[in-house]
Write a structure and sequence with these properties.
Length: 95
């Protein structure tokens, strides 16, 4: 449910040479308020090994930020207020 909402805000980006960036599945630490707004910025669980992967992480974090507020079931707030989803940027990028 969260990932599909992030996908609405995904934009395809290229690197400085104009080629499509390398994408990967990226885990992020996410903290949400009860109203579905981020409590703080999304934080990647791992450091990016390459400049393209860093750009990929930045793109995913941007989409996470732009798509708020998230509409998630209020009755499960204790479960989703702090979680670490793995977001499949390849799914958004059409790779």
């Amino acid at each position: 449910m969260f990932q599909s909402q992030v996908g609405r805000c995904w934009k395809k980006y290229t690197n400085d040479s104009g080629t499509k960036i390398q994408t990967t599945n990226t885990g992020f630490e996410i903290k949400l308020k009860r109203n579905g707004m981020l409590e703080g910025p999304p934080v990647p669980e791992e450091a990016a090994a390459t400049p393209d992967l860093r750009l990929d992480q930045d793109n995913v974090a941007r989409a996470i930020t732009e798509c708020q507020p998230y509409r998630l079931p209020a009755e499960y707030c204790d479960e989703w207020k702090y979680f670490a989803p793995v977001l499949a940027a390849k799914r958004f990028a059409g790779s």
